[in-house]
Design goal:
By secondary structure, this protein is mainly alpha-helical. The chain is built from ten helices and no strands. The chain has helices at residues 3-14, 30-44, 51-57, 62-65, 72-83, 91-99, 105-122, 126-129, 138-150, 158-182. The longest helix has 25 residues, at 158-182. It is elongated and about 55 Å long. It starts with a helix and ends in a 20-residue tail after the last helix.
């Protein structure tokens, strides 16, 4: 991302709703735009996503779409935020893991890792979209915070805990990438029968 793209992504992901720009009445929402992109990426992979294609899906012109999102990099940032499962959905599982007999950081990270894996299975293009220097949205940051919370009290420094989370996430990513390759490397949703590799995180 360029500095301009970075600033735009921060504004779109974290800023207040933008005031309407001059011109015709705005009829789209950032959520609707993101979900249109997610639908294309789920069917065809991230390579199938373009501003022109999303505009066509929404029955608007590409120039109209630019009034909301300045380019593909910012569009993909919005798509990641829309496609990631709500991290609050992990809370019940994390609490149950913590309360179980012998429950601790290992059990909680297992819940977290399996949730992340299911997100990659549902939207395989996230494997491409969540690498490199980029702006994290509230949902992605929420996932990171819950993994770090699971390691609270383990005696790790902040840097060590972060390294541990990155290591686990990398392991999950590797499993998901292997599964995707075995399924043919397409960008679409992986079939429900391929769950075996995650046994290593059980």
């Amino acid at each position: 991302m360029t500095s301009e793209q970075w600033s735009a992504a921060v504004r779109l992901l974290w800023g207040p709703p933008a005031k309407p720009a001059r011109g015709p009445k705005r009829g789209l929402t950032l959520e609707g735009i993101a979900l249109a992109g997610v639908g294309i990426a789920d069917a065809e992979g991230l390579g199938g996503v373009s501003m022109q294609r999303v505009a066509a899906e929404l029955a608007v012109t590409k120039m109209a779409l630019y009034r909301y999102v300045p380019g593909k990099a910012e569009l993909v940032a919005l798509m990641v935020e829309a496609a990631l499962p709500d991290p609050a959905g992990l809370d019940a599982g994390l609490a149950a893991a913590a309360a179980s007999a012998g429950g601790g950081w290992r059990e909680q990270l297992g819940v977290w890792a399996r949730g992340l894996y299911e997100g990659f299975r549902a939207h395989p293009w996230l494997l491409e979209a969540t690498v490199g220097a980029r702006v994290m949205g509230p949902r992605e940051l929420g996932w990171m915070e819950r993994a770090l919370a699971a390691l609270d009290g383990c005696g790790l420094s902040g840097a060590e805990a972060m390294d541990s989370v990155v290591l686990v996430a990398g392991h999950v990513r590797g499993i998901a990438e292997q599964e995707r390759a075995m399924a043919g490397g397409g960008g679409g949703v992986v079939g429900p029968g391929a769950k075996g590799p995650m046994r290593s995180l059980s």
